[in-house]
TrEMBL record:
InterPro entries: P-loop_NTPase, PRK, PRK/URK. This is Phosphoribulokinase. It comes from Aphanocapsa feldmannii 277cV. It catalyses: D-ribulose 5-phosphate + ATP = D-ribulose 1,5-bisphosphate + ADP + H(+). Gene3D superfamilies: P-loop containing nucleotide triphosphate hydrolases. Residues 7-220 form the Phosphoribulokinase/uridine kinase domain. GO terms for molecular function: ATP binding; phosphoribulokinase activity. Belongs to the phosphoribulokinase family.
Length: 298
């Protein structure tokens, strides 16, 4: 961890909604004039799309567990090195995983390359003179044998909808945006489950703050739900790890006054309506980011 070069990480499973939190941070950075160096979790996958499919087929044939959630499919040592180097000097490297033809075209134009969707761009230096490092992805708080990424993060945010809602969101996203069939998506969820339990869930004990969305409509069978519950059909539990309220000077009394309908469900948890999630994030996170930048400058 570094006051001189702070690191903020948003971590959550596929379909959890980390991109929503990322947008909240982007608004804070833009409004407050903060320049982040941004890195994406997908950049730290070990294999490109073609190689991953081949490795997956090998694992299935051998009866082995293998998924993007686990260490075998990621370069956690490189992620740890990136965080450590930035925390020490404000420097480091990044690359991009190209999800779509649009992303490929953008980076091919920028780099003069001819890369296809599913490939990585070359590693390149992070921008100079940034205010903080911002990570969004699957493994911002991962910890295991030989690596402890969580220990290098100054502010670690978890995005953790209850499991059924997470599955509903993933099924709808992968079907509408990527064209996967419901059967294929369910197979993916089942295949990833051991790695989810062993490598994703433990991160949420390392996070400083977790945002957990809980629907107030029936999601008993997530595999037949036609629609994702709307924000107004849910609550968000905002849980602060013990000691974090004091660490970041979080004022619950102020938050309860500012967020209509909010209440405390425990000494460390605040509950807000789902439609207030973005507002609550900005109220909570803006002073924390301010404090980081002030400590950086002092």
């Amino acid at each position: 961890m570094s006051k001189r070069h702070p690191i903020v990480a948003v971590t959550g499973s596929s379909g959890a909604g980390t991109s929503t939190v990322k947008r909240a941070f982007e608004r804070i950075f833009r409004r407050e004039g903060i320049t982040p160096a941004v890195i994406e979790g997908d950049s730290y996958h070990r294999f490109d799309r073609v190689a991953m499919k081949a490795k997956m087929a090998e694992a299935v044939a051998a009866g082995q567990n293998f998924s993007h959630f686990g260490p075998e499919a990621n370069i956690f040592d490189k992620l740890q090195t990136t965080f450590a180097e930035y925390g020490e000097s404000g420097a480091g490297e990044r690359r991009y995983y190209l999800h779509s033809p649009e992303e490929s075209a953008e980076h091919n134009t920028r780099l003069g390359t001819n890369l296809d969707p599913g490939e990585f761009t070359p590693w390149e230096p992070l921008p100079a003179n940034t205010d903080l490092l911002f990570y969004e992805g699957l493994h911002g708080g991962v910890k295991g044998q030989g690596y402890n990424v969580a220990s290098l993060v100054d502010l670690l945010i978890g995005v953790v909808p209850i499991t059924n809602l997470e599955w509903i969101q993933k099924i709808h996203r992968d079907n509408s945006e990527r064209g996967y069939s419901a059967e294929t998506i369910v197979d993916t969820i089942l295949r990833r489950m051991p790695d989810y339990i062993n490598h994703v869930c433990p991160q949420f004990s390392q996070t400083h703050i977790n945002f957990q969305r809980v629907p107030t409509v029936d999601t008993s069978n997530p595999f037949i739900c036609r629609d994702i519950p709307t924000p107004d059909e849910s609550f968000v539990i905002i849980h602060f790890r013990r000691g974090v309220r004091e660490m970041f000077n979080v004022d619950f009394t102020y938050l309860l006054k500012m967020i209509d309908g909010s209440f405390m469900s425990s000494p460390t948890s605040l509950v807000v309506g789902g439609g207030k999630m973005g507002f609550a994030m900005e109220l909570i996170l803006t002073p924390i980011i301010h404090r980081m930048i002030e400590e950086k400058q002092n």
